[in-house]
């Protein structure tokens, strides 16, 4: 199984994503340069975290028009699995491959810390190795993570089970205090209606080794492996 | 072909939490400007555009706003001014 990891100018978590999928998972990976038009046979595309194009204009707004994103969009439309982490989530929203938008944290502060996530939907190709309601410990590191969408869009996401992860306290309750950025309904990650594009603000690729304090992020990658097959 | 300078305001959509605007309002209150009821922080863009006429220049800039300069989910925009560059 081959992961394609997209590299924009300003991407800085590509190495972490690389380590997550090639290390514990034993999958192969290839870096995809933003100016390329070729996904190089990747089975899964990862848009990693960072600050593509310096977050100019809005986070993810410029990366969306990169040559490689035309290929990623076509891959997504044909049912290929795409996961956007942090800046990757912002890019997927800007590209309209996911609904909504990510705005400045309500606190106006950059937040870098571990958070608790509750798995809301364990029936996706990204979460089949978790169980619904499972609590994960995964770090966040972002300044623009406040998920926003109009009321109808929010209802549609919730009704269709497209909210995949929610910020909660350590008991699994989605309190205001457990919400690090002011996201609507404590939303940390969502999936598209066809179930093949997922975005999340937390960094599962940084929770794959006991030395880093948590291996809870590994399930996303092993889920993909279980879905796509080695 | 004439060149126009088109100014655009991009502002957070009403009803969407604007923590920056709130921080500015609170700071103004602290400074004694109690008359400030609300404040919003957006972006001001100035574009120089070659176009046959003013209407073409603004139509072009509106298309740019729809496609890139404003986020249709969270922001509104308005043409703030057009003049010959």
What fraction, in percent, of the residue positions of chain A are helical? 10-25%
Low-confidence stretches of chain A: none
Radius of gyration of chain A: 16 Å
Biggest beta-sheet profile of chain B: 3 strands, antiparallel
Domain module tally of chain A: 1
Oligomer description: heterodimer
CATH superfamily membership of chain A: Class I glutamine amidotransferase (GATase) domain
- Placed side by side, the strands forming the largest sheet of chain B appear as 2-1-3
Mean pLDDT of chain B, to the nearest integer, reads: 96
The parts of chain B where pLDDT drops under 50 for at least 5 residues are none
Shape descriptor of chain A reads globular
- The share of residues in extended strands of chain B comes to 25-35%
CATH architecture annotation name of chain B: 2-Layer Sandwich
Largest sheet of chain A: 9 strands, mixed
What is the C-level CATH assignment of chain B? Alpha Beta
CATH class of chain A, named Alpha Beta
Keyword list:
heterodimer, A: 230 residues, alpha/beta, Rossmann fold, 9-stranded mixed beta sheet, two-stranded antiparallel ribbon, 5 helices, 11 strands, 21% helix, globular, B: 85 residues, alpha+beta, Mth169, Chain: A, 3-stranded antiparallel beta sheet, 2 helices, 3 strands, elongated
């Amino acid at each position: 199984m081959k992961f394609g990891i997209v590299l924009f100018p300003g991407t800085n978590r590509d190495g972490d994503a690389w380590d997550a999928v090639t290390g514990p998972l034993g999958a192969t990976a290839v870096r995809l340069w933003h100016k390329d038009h070729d996904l190089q046979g990747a089975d899964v595309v990862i848009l990693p975290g960072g600050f593509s194009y310096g977050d100019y204009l809005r986070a993810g707004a410029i990366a969306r028009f990169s040559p490689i994103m035309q290929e990623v969009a076509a891959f997504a439309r044909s049912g290929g699995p795409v996961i956007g982490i942090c800046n990757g989530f912002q890019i997927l929203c800007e590209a309209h491959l996911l609904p909504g938008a990510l705005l400045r944290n309500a606190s106006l502060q950059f937040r870098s810390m571990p958070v608790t996530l509750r798995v809301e939907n364990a029936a996706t190709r990204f979460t089949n190795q978790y169980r619904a309601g499972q609590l994960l410990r995964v770090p966040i590191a972002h300044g623009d993570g406040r998920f926003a969408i109009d009321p109808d869009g929010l209802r549609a996401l919730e009704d269709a089970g497209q909210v995949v992860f929610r910020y909660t306290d350590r008991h699994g309750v989605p309190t205001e205090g457990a919400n690090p950025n002011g996201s609507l309904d404590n939303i940390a990650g969502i999936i598209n209606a066809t179930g093949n594009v997922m975005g999340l603000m937390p960094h599962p690729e940084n929770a794959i080794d006991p030395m880093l304090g948590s291996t809870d992020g590994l399930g996303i990658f092993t889920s993909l492996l279980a879905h796509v097959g080695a | 072909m004439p060149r126009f300078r088109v100014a655009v305001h991009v502002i957070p959509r009403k009803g969407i939490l604007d923590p920056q605007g709130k921080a500015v309002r609170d700071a103004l209150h602290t400074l004694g400007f109690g008359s400030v009821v609300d404040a919003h922080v957006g972006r001001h863009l100035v574009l120089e555009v070659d176009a046959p006429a003013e209407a073409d220049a603004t139509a072009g800039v509106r298309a740019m706003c729809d496609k890139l300069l404003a986020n249709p989910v969270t922001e509104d925009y308005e043409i703030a001014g057009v003049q010959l560059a």
